[in-house]
Automatic annotation (TrEMBL):
GO molecular function terms attached to this record: DNA binding; DNA-binding transcription factor activity
InterPro entries: HTH_MarR-typ, WH-like_DNA-bd_sf, WH_DNA-bd_sf
UniProt feature coiled coil, ranges: none
Ubl conjugation found in the keyword field: no
Name of this chain's protein: DNA-binding MarR family transcriptional regulator
Keywords associated with the record: DNA-binding
Annotated HTH marR-type domain residues: 31-129
Organism of provenance: Blastococcus xanthinilyticus
Highest taxon above the source species: Bacteria
Amino acid sequence: MTSPDVPSPPATSPAVLLVALGRQLDGWINGSLEEVGLSLRLLGALGHLAREPGLSYTELARRARVTTQSMHATVAALIEAGAVAPAGPGRGRRALLDLTPRGRRLLATGQAVIAGIDAELRGLGSLPADRDLFGLLGAVTGRTGGPSEAGRADEGSA
């Protein structure tokens, strides 16, 4: 019996559970990618450049839904790692970016990490439950305007 002064526990909210799950998955994914010298942000940029070589910083930032300044920092890290190189002149013209062979190897490594996490997630439940979960996630993603382009890095040059 509850007293009128003590609120009852709130009902479980699917929206709050999805946010909590998202935070846990973000930590798991970025922790796993860090072991191979990547982050989801870096992997996303590599994926975009694999799908569409020669993007400018601005185009890449738009696809990743971040500021151009933030993308400059991301690309600087990728250039330092030898994963990205300018594809054309930058002074006075748009700086175009391309993957290097090292960038393609990093992308493949990152995709393998994501595939391993996906396999583990799929192994947690039965196939019908997976279909329900992935259907729900797809519906929510469509309702909220789609995933960040960075979140689709695993679609890179597969």
